[in-house]
Amino acid sequence: MEPIRVAVIGVGNCFSALLQGIHYYRHKQPEDVIGLMHWNLGGYTPGDIEIVAAVDVDRRKVGRDVAEAVFQPPNCTTRFYEDIPKSGVTVQMGRILDGVAPHMKNYPESRRFEPADDPEADEERIVDLFRSRGVQVVMNYLPVGAEEAVKFYASCVLKAGAAMVNNMPVFIASNPEWAQRFTAAGVPIIGDDIKSQLGATITHRVLAGLFRDRGVQLEHTYQLNTGGNTDFLNMLDRSRLKSKKESKTEAVQSMLSDRLEDEDIHIGPSDYIAWLNDRKLCFLRMEGRIFGDIPIDMEIRLSVEDSPNSAGVGIDAIRCCRLALDRGAAGVLESPSAYFMKHPPRQYADHEALAMVEAFIRGERER
């Protein structure tokens, strides 16, 4: 198969895990593969993904080959495949806008973003980068709260005629106006806000559905998340969390027969703990009533390396976008969005979304 030509916005921990994974699985035999939902997806394997362009604003990454840039501070995810060959793809300076939270300057240099002195890119420069590299799919990995920046890059993607995977909780695919713009441009989009392979949101959703299906009345629940990467440091500014909290909360509420009152459900980041680095700890509690109005409660502690936990989902999303391009499909890809994302245009139970995405891969569903 011809390579899937991918551009990345944001050379952070998530992209580091994605790039390591592409090369890690490229050297695997199908019978030895662990940790992927799909080895062969519509004829494409992980090794068919080629990174051809990358954009960031950090001085330690801009100007470096992506193979080096993914291991620069403040990136701190696990290095499970370090033998990434230089690609000749140099990280280009992007546009900052609201992509860097002001409070981060109060933390050590090794932990925060350090904006480069290079002139910021305008729309024409980004569009030209995507076009000149023949980019087919753009992965958005900007920080939570970067509303203006995400919209700036989404506009660039449209003008370049590429597909988009919106991994962040700025609502593009789930915004009808933006969704229509992708349809009109004749290119697909998957979004918004990527689910981890087995993380806090998918676990909480499945348990909420279990309570519902077994006739248990859920009365109160919380999901508290802590971590030590730049994502958690960035989210210490609670003003940047509106879309994130809405995305994660709606992902759980949509699984309930009766929605909980706001005071009975709390889902969101709890705190930044530097020494956790890219490890994420989730503390999940659910309280309800079973037969005879008898109380029941459940507590779970989930510990996982945060960025690799989303990378396999990202690899599938890229390949689904390429299938859509091959088939001439445009606009929001409903099936992949429902299965891969926390805030798709329409929520489905995860078993339904899985069946939908498998049908899409087989070509039985257009989108």
Question: What can you tell me about this protein's structure?
Answer:
The strands form two sheets. The chain has a seven-stranded parallel sheet, with helices on both faces. The protein starts with a strand and ends in a 5-residue tail after the last helix. Helix 3 (123-132) crosses helix 4 and helix 6 runs parallel beside helix 8. It is an alpha/beta fold and 367 residues long. The protein has helices at residues 13-26, 66-69, 123-132, 147-160, 176-185, 200-213, 230-234, 242-253, 308-327, 334-340, 350-362; strands spanning 4-9, 49-56, 91-93, 137-140, 163-166, 188-191, 217-227, 265-272, 279-290, 294-305, 331-332. It is 34% helix and 20% strand.
Topology (elements, then pairings):
Elements: E1 4-9, H1 13-26, E2 49-56, H2 66-69, E3 91-93, H3 123-132, E4 137-140, H4 147-160, E5 163-166, H5 176-185, E6 188-191, H6 200-213, E7 217-227, H7 230-234, H8 242-253, E8 265-272, E9 279-290, E10 294-305, H9 308-327, E11 331-332, H10 334-340, H11 350-362
Parallel strand pairs: 1-2, 1-4, 2-3, 4-5, 5-6, 6-11, 7-8
Antiparallel strand pairs: 7-9, 9-10
Helix pairs in contact: 1-9, 3-4, 6-8, 10-11
Q: What is the mean predicted local confidence, pLDDT?
A: 96
Unreliable spans are none
C-alpha geometry: globular
Task: Label the structural class.
Answer: alpha/beta
Over the alpha carbons, how many angstroms does the gyration radius reach?
A: 20 Å
Strand order of the largest sheet: 3-2-1-4-5-6-11
Percent range for β-strand residues: 15-25%
